[in-house]
Amino acid sequence: MRRLSLLLLAAAALLAAAVAGAAAGGPAAKLSPDFYSQTCPRAERIIAEVVQSKQMANPTTAAGMLRVFFHDCFVTGCDASVLIAPTRFAKSEKDAEINHSLPGDAFDAVVRSKLALELECPGVVSCADVLALASRVLVTMTGGPRYPVPLGRKDSLSSSPTAPDVELPHSNFTVGRILELFLAKGFTVQEMVALSGAHTLGFSHCQEFASRIYNYRDKTGKPAPFDPTMNPGYAKGLQAACKEYLKDPTIAAFNDVMTPGKFDNMYYVNIERGLGLLSTDEDMWSDLRTRPLVERYAANNTAFFDDFARAMEKLSMYGVKTGADGEIRRRCDAYNDGPNTL
């Protein structure tokens, strides 16, 4: 009887370890940069050709791809669950409010890549791997660092319409609340600040920062023309650019006003100068946990690139599915045999 109890305890310990491992990033040991070397050796080249062409035609594709990749990985792991299109019978992550503004160019680039791959090696390369590789290609194409992307992810068998709004950071969150989300998933303060550097690309809609430039009130309720932590010329320029945003919610501003199409450390330099666009940018400057890292990356582009590369590699391994936990979708926006309802 005692031997049986010990065996049960041992089994429980192994199960707990397996669950912890999955939560921390999944069975990463099964992934390898050479995963497709025999089954689809031109996979990375095919993806690169498609997304580079898309980026040249639509220069906001890179920022959009990084956003889609982050929204995918931070919700149930890097498993292409964000790519599933909702149907009359089942909703998906795309139905979540925070995902309504995800850019179509990024989804289109993934779809085009998958079509090209299916012609070359059908049923081999997962959509999750396409998304991870496409993100890396576009980071390097816009001037950022190249980092390892281990391959062999499977695509998810489910996609939650409610999880994204709960698990993803929102533009009006405090840095403290964003850090809680990152720390809960096993990421450090440094990794959070480094990954935020992806905002060196892309834009944000005026409604996401309108409270900083219109009808601003400080913590005591005192009114001001705009958030006083902002550069006055920058704030007035945004007020002029966004004056019709209530009539036209598509009006937006670049996250990095200085070098919006280049992947560099200017995002952090801007924060130091009061040129951060979102309230979360200002929060990273005022929070004592994050300010030293903002200063470090603003002063040293190499340090930013090194830390961003490591953080992206870690993010790309978060919660990956392998084996029977996923599938290789024939189409990135639909399951092969319907969603997993278990």
From TrEMBL:
Keywords: Calcium, Disulfide bond, Heme, Hydrogen peroxide, Iron, Metal-binding, Oxidoreductase, Peroxidase, Pyrrolidone carboxylic acid, Secreted, Signal. Transmembrane segments: none annotated. Disulfide bonds join 40-121, 73-78, 127-332, 206-242. One of its GO terms (cellular component) is extracellular region. The record marks 67 as: Transition state stabilizer. Substrate binds at residue 169. This is Peroxidase.
